[in-house]
Amino acid sequence: MTPLPAPALSETTRGLCILFIALVPFAAAGLSVINTGLGRSRSAAHSMLAALCVLAVAAGVYFVCGFAWQGFVGLPAHTVAVGGKTWNWIAAEPFFLRGVELDGSPASLAVWLEILSVGLAALIPIGAGADRWRLSAVCISTALLSGWTYPLFAHWVWGGGWLAQLGVNYGLGHGFLDAGGSSSIQALGGLTALAIAWILGPRRAKYTPDSMPTAIPGHNAVLVLFGCLLALVGWLGLNCAGAILFTNTEPGRCVLVAVNTTLASGSAALAAAAVTRFRFGKPDASLSANGWVSGLVASSAACAFIPPAASVAIGLVAGALVALTVELFESRLAVDDPGGAISVHAVGGLWGVLALGIFGRFPAEWLNSRAGNPPGSGQWIAQLVGVATLLGFVLPLSYALNWLLNRVYPQRVAAEGERQGMDLYELGAGAYPEFVTHADEFTQR
Q1: pTM exceeding the 0.85 threshold for the entire prediction
Q2: DSSP state for residue 97 in the 8-state scheme
């Protein structure tokens, strides 16, 4: 049983979907330069190379087995019977994309979008592991995420899995919904970032002997702010393509999706700037940029189902949450996250999932397609179940996989690597060879 049949796309819709998917790499470029700018200058080349390697490994592993586990609505899947209900838990597709006709069908477009989306999810932990995460360990961790964690949860959300079936089987609204990936891309990537930050531990000199955090500013605010603009372009494509393929959104409704995505990012950036202005006397550029991305993250789940006013409210909350939780993780929980990935993607993604349950307004034709459930009936409970699954299953799974990896193959670079910088230690050359790339106060302890 699936909550919606696989969409049948017209030629016009197929063309638009191809255009939208082609924009998604801009999101990857944006996240890559943001992570680089928020890290130290002596690790800049390492950060960008790690991003390229992550995208390559994620695409390759997803090609080998990822889509086989994730599948698509209407394709074969393994089911279990619980309480008299049939629950779909994992896809049953052949490996290496065998049997998938790459001809512009909805399933083939989903394959293309998912190859890019799993790369986006795997890019997120790079921000949390900046300046101390070995390149080889980054690649192996990415293989674990793209080969198992991501496709399993994405099947539950987008492949007709049990979360999507909550509406049909239990009458919880329209089942768990996520048009653009607030949960399956953003929150999953952000929770993996939290697991990586816990396992790696803080950077040298980040905390004083009495456990007080010290400031280690990012080296290039211009890169960070430019990355925000790239991310906006990519997110417009991601949200529109996801809405068409995973929620049967009509092409004309993509205008609403684009407007909501833009408003959420802008209001989130302003909220972060206002909070930092109030707390510190001046707006903080890096936190405002993180607020912008958090607005994009939070917009993804509900972008096709909310009016513009609601997207502004979602963005305002997302931006404020970033400005407050970055300090919470750093000061209270001793989690060193140079790129703010946990606050931006995990917190922002979870908020976006819940926001759909609060603000979502659904097309009238969904009434008859969802077992007669009134629009919005129990939707917030379905969204809450998704959040509980992320926190109660995805986070422990990500931590366990990376903890086991760390036991077999230590993920943190040697202390000498942190002192020299990741560029020199792992790549043999710096990103800025003609300039001084670090000062003594960031290398002494």
Answers
A1: yes
A2: G
Number of CB atoms found within 10 A of residue 309's CB: 11
Which residue type occupies 94?
P
* DSSP 3-state of 104: coil
How many C-beta atoms surround the C-beta of residue 382 within 10 A?
Answer: 25
Domain boundaries, the chain: 11-207+217-435
State the amino acid at position 112 in one-letter form: W
pLDDT band at 372 (very low <50, low <70, confident <90, very high): very low
Asked if residues 224 and 37 have their Cβ atoms less than 8 Å apart, the reply is yes
Sequence-ordered list of residues with C-beta below 8 angstroms from that of 30, at least 6 positions apart, any chain: 227, 228, 229, 230, 231, 232, 233, 234, 293
280 touches 307 (CB < 8 A): no
Closest by CA to 318, choosing from 360, 263, 259, is: 263
- CATH T-level topology, domain 11-207+217-435: Ammonium transporter fold (1.10.3430)
The pLDDT confidence band at residue 1, using thresholds 50, 70 and 90, is very low
Q: Is 329 helix (H, G, I), strand (E, B) or coil?
A: helix
Of the candidates 148, 140, 145, 109, the one whose C-alpha atom is nearest the C-alpha of residue 124 is: 145
Sole residue written with tokens 């930092």:
276
Dist. CA 147–CA 265, nearest whole Å: 31
- Structure tokens belonging to residue 98: 């065998």
